[in-house]
Amino acid sequence: xxxxxxxxxxxxxxxxxxxxxxxxxxxxxxxxxxxxxxxxxxxxxxxxxxxxxxxxxxxxxxxxxxxxxxxxxxxxxxxxxxxxxxxxxxxxxxxxxxxxxxxxxxxxxxxxxxxxxxxxxxxxxxxxxxxxxxxxxxxxxxxxxxxxxxxxxxxxxxxxxxxxxxxxxxxxxxxxxxxxxxxxxxxxxxxxxxxxxxxxxxxxxxxxxxxxxxxxxxxxxxxxxxxxxxxxxxxxxxxxxxxxxxxxxxxxxxxxxxxxxxxxxxxxxxxxxxxxxxxxxxxxxxxxxxxxxxxxxxxxxxxxxxxxxxxxxxxxxxxxxxxxxxxxxxxxxxxxxxxxxxxxxxxxxxxxxxxxxxxxxxxxxxxxxxxxxxxxxxxxxxxxxxxxxxxxxxxxxxxxxxxxxxxxxxxxxxxxxxxxxxxxxxxxxxxxxxxxxxxxxxxxxxxxxxxxxxxxxxxxxxxxxxxxxxxxxxxxxxxxxxxxxxxxxxxxxxxxxxxxxxxxxxxxxxxxxxxxxxxxxxxxxxxxx
Length: 529
Hints:
Elements: H1 6-14, E1 19-23, E2 26-29, H2 30-46, E3 54-58, H3 63-74, E4 78-81, H4 88-98, E5 102-105, H5 110-116, E6 124-127, E7 136-137, H6 138-141, E8 157-159, E9 162-164, E10 170-176, H7 177-189, E11 200-203, H8 210-223, E12 226-229, H9 235-245, E13 249-252, H10 254-261, E14 276-279, H11 286-296, E15 300-305, E16 312-315, E17 327-329, E18 334-338, E19 362-363, E20 369-370, H12 372-375, E21 377-382, E22 389-390, H13 394-400, E23 401-404, E24 407-418, E25 423-428, E26 434-436, E27 439-441, H14 443-452, E28 456-466, E29 470-479, H15 487-497, E30 506-509, H16 523-526
Parallel strand pairs: 3-4, 3-5, 5-6, 6-7, 11-12, 11-13, 13-14, 14-15, 29-30
Antiparallel strand pairs: 1-2, 8-10, 9-10, 10-22, 15-16, 16-17, 17-25, 18-21, 19-20, 21-24, 23-24, 24-25, 26-27, 28-29
Helix pairs in contact: 1-2, 1-8, 2-3, 4-5, 7-8, 10-11
């Protein structure tokens, strides 16, 4: 039986005085971190959280997120991470669906928890900093540090982040101790020589997101490096920190790298301490990648994964990469490309394929020329990092997996192809999902909110190209006759109820939406395809 948190305990035994976290000039050693996680676990036990109990962590990247995460695991609980940008209507479902009993948050976010508290099982709200009405401070909540870690089985659930399918209904993803531990070890292997004790990792990817949680936080702590969290992305603050602390590792989404190279003083920045940079969340434009590498003489490695896979399944590595690909399947994971009948689609001889060119007829490994559409299919994966399933969603679980010859294959929903050298390429995300700056936005969620507006008769939401974010959200709205509203008013209305990245940055009023004979909106027409 192995509790995921014991990996941090092992590092604390080996490097008690080593720096685990450095935040705003204050360092936390591994000994101190382990003691704080024990104290938080004791607080949860005193609060009546039993083994398997859910704890919501509604925080930005601050040391208390790390303490709360591993402290919850030490108490035998399950972490429910939540985006601090979320509004009450967004966190209510997560808290109610998961049955979370305790929420850790900031004083300024506590009123949002209070607004939905009566409709959930939450009985305790813990605030980082001073207590506000109806809360207890983080320090007061914690108990004694010498808490005995609760044993958990490898297939016991450790974390329940939320994601959505194309229906937009948030689903709890059940990630086990083994899912997360195995993937952190896989992530460690993507670094040349693994994560070293002298490595210093930029922690700007949000910890509520599985990429920041596993690849950045856990992999760093398990390897004995130092984690430098930043509560929010600020390009100048991040660059200053890399320079002053001589950080060695950086992971980010494409928009972050684009922000860096577009800084007025980009060419004068000294990022020579970096030995590796990783990028995921969405495909990075080759021009952005090459410009960053030329400016700072450090390679940027592309990877791929999903919340349901803990997340990493593919990654380019030093000496073994192909720009434009998501890399090769990680050791311990299997992946392939299948058609609608779950038959494997044969690989091309070599990618990437230029789908815009007439010369893009790429040969398969048998030498036969084919078009891009003929070599693509759905990417499916299996391995120890693949989730246990969705929480209380039997129908979704049935659709998510296919068992063949004793192997449980997970359907990523992403269209791609592979080549004879083992590199994989993603052609398109799920049919209607919008990927903006690394965040998935599900149109159904925004559309349902729009339909609640008193002047909206009909609405559809699509993703449109955006130079910085890759895609951004656009809403097409059919107003009711005589309705008194403007595009700007619709934007403000959405921003009041949705995270900033989800709200439509473009709103266009139209007389009607293009539909099929069965009533479905022809979204490709709205996107101008």
